[in-house]
């Protein structure tokens, strides 16, 4: 289902990205509309799949997940059954925050959040026991400079 979006729709989406917990009245005031039309626009965009589930962004460090690793994976395995097993292994690991298949020398990159280096090693050992990979390189993030879920609408 294709949805035509205008500037008001974009403003609504920007407000929801900033804080989805705002009331409809607050959003309507900020975008220069009223509550019912804003609700109808939000519903239309949800129905079209523009918005996914509403979630809460948690502070990983305050919850004890102080280590963020970017894991570069090279594999010589490219058969469909290996890929299914690999993707399932990633989906089953809650430490994996993001996973991307890449073009170029590296096949996959993962963003992994754990409490410390020992927890990363446990993740690493579990992963390589489940699936065969050619090479894994882990890069520890020393500082998160920018992190956002907001798209530049």
TrEMBL record:
The keyword Transcription regulation applies. Residues 5-66 form the HTH asnC-type domain. Keywords: DNA-binding, Transcription, Transcription regulation. InterPro entries: ArsR-like_HTH (IPR011991), AsnC-type_HTH_dom (IPR000485), Dimeric_a/b-barrel (IPR011008), Tscrpt_reg_AsnC-like (IPR019888), Tscrpt_reg_AsnC/Lrp_C (IPR019887), Tscrpt_reg_HTH_AsnC-type_CS (IPR019885), WH-like_DNA-bd_sf (IPR036388), WH_DNA-bd_sf (IPR036390). One of its GO terms (biological process) is response to amino acid. It comes from the Bacteria. Pfam families: AsnC_trans_reg, HTH_AsnC-type. One of its GO terms (cellular component) is cytosol. The keyword Transferase does not apply. SMART domains: HTH_ASNC. One of its GO terms (molecular function) is sequence-specific DNA binding. This is Leucine-responsive regulatory protein. It comes from Thalassovita gelatinovora (Thalassobius gelatinovorus). The gene is lrp_10.
